[in-house]
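Hey, resending since the last one bounced:
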Amino acid sequence: MTANGGRRRGDASLTVLSTVLFNLATGISFVAVPLLALQARYTATQIGLLIALSAVSQMIARGFMGPLLRRRPDRVFVVTACVLTALSCGVLAVSTSVVAFVAAELAQGLARAMFWTGIQTHVVRAARTAVGGLTLVNIAGGVGSLVGPIVAGLLSEVSPEVALMGGVAVGVGSVVPAVMLIKLPVFEKARRESGMIWRRPGVSAACWTAVGTGTWKGVLNSYVPVALALASQSSTTIGILIATGNGACLLGTAVSGWVKRFGTNGSLLIGIVCTGAGTAAIGPTASLTIAVAIALVISGIGAGVLQTVGPAVAAEVVHPQEQGDVIASVGLFRAAALFAAPAGMAGMVLIAPLSVAFVVVGGLVMLPALSLRKFALRT
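The structure tokens again:
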């Protein structure tokens, strides 16, 4: 094995470990935070709006990530994100005030923006292929997201605060492998084509797929636990069901290479339809454990395909020095959906049952499929 080969494998191992731990910590918070808010007697609308705040800070941060990656190495953002996610869990473990929720959600959104832009940029440059690198981190993230909700559900049987303290411990642990990542050079300023980068063929497709994955993730992290809790599911069952969705997303990521045989248009269509149809079915089936599990599996597989195929296509069609910008742009669309989904549902539940809100959101996720040829890269 060459020195470079050994260094690359070592970096890949550290990337996997930091991604697993970061997503384990956030996976704990995604279940514990809504349960804590319900325990503190916040309404479903208030919970949706509070959780949507994380997407606000994420959108703002994503807008600056491209230029910042030309000033600081990507691993700096990964390390900072790990620290922030531990702090966000810690704040809510000691206080359930509105100020604490706002601060924690803003920190969580900033952490997710920094981590995913940083780690995806890192693997796209360090791995042999963009698809291979992104598949690696998405699978690693899926493992953490699979275990995190289960841990949160079990610990929340004691109290959501205990679950959040577990999130603090894991978040602190994720800092160690993040610090040890290879220090890659910052991006140079590349000569750009005219027009917005997100309008280019391939990049446009990735941005629209990010809307689908962001909507699914935003709903999973906010109103899915709420719907399940209101349907009298236990906290342990809720944790297992959320983990089921995340596990399905992991499966979707793993099979994305096979799905891509249908071409970019075909793979995106499969991902969009599965994500939207599965999401629409979650609310109406919330009280039926097996049925809601099937809905989470279908939507999760679709989201896993979209979150892997889309960014990989975008990273491969731009100049190497623009990869940081394009990954940040795709992430910005995802963050916008992370905000719009829970915020929109918060408004809908004021005038309609929560189950109807799920159906509406699922239908909106599938809308891009109607005009797929307009924005997808032909293969």
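The chain has 15 helices and no strands.

Sorry for the duplicate.
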